[in-house]
Amino acid sequence: MKKLLFPLILLLAALTFVTTSCEENFDGEGSKFRRLEALSRSWNVTEARFGREVAPGDWYNSFSIAFTSDGQYLVTNPDGRPAGPLNTSGTWEFANNETVLVFDRGTQQETRILIAFLSASGDNMEWEWDVTLPGKARTTYQFKLVPAQ
């Protein structure tokens, strides 16, 4: 019986590893399609941080950004409050193994934003990018986004 116990434990450990490592995530083969599919929709900001400061909700609660699978984006920000470095519309693409969004590549408005988090289910995302304002130190901006309702 003892001789069978060790192989049985080893087999259960191997099965546990295989089943947990097969969960859907955004790594490996086909990740670009899954990220593209998850990203291609409208998003609303739920939280914005500028450095260590949390922005008031009325600065971003009407802000949305829509991504299309053919590389276009459209920003809606009817209040005109600070909502990031983007134009109202333009092009986007992935870079750095789909961990970075590049907006308006090759233009003066080119902006690179790190996708700090994008859930496998596509139900939330976090962005980070560094900003240096004239006469001020560099700071990190962060947005938390969810799909628009």
What does this structure look like?
The chain is an alpha+beta fold and 149 residues long. It has one domain: Lipocalin. Helices cover 19% and strands 38% of the residues. The protein contains two helices and nine strands, in the order ααβββββββββ. It has an eight-stranded antiparallel barrel with strand order 1-3-4-5-6-7-8-9. A hairpin with a 2-residue loop joins β1 and β2. The chain is globular, with a radius of gyration of 20 Å. The N and C termini lie far apart (58 Å). The model is unreliable at 1-30 (pLDDT under 50).
Q: In summary, what is this structure?
A:
With 149 residues, the protein is of the alpha+beta class. It is built from two helices and nine strands.
Strand content: 35-45%
Count of strand segments? 9
The tally of structural domains comes to 1
Tell me the CATH architecture. Beta Barrel
SSE layout and pairings?
Blueprint: H1 2-21, H2 31-39, E1 42-50, E2 53-54, E3 64-67, E4 72-76, E5 89-95, E6 100-103, E7 111-118, E8 125-132, E9 138-147
Antiparallel strand pairs: 1-2, 1-3, 1-9, 3-4, 4-5, 5-6, 6-7, 7-8, 8-9
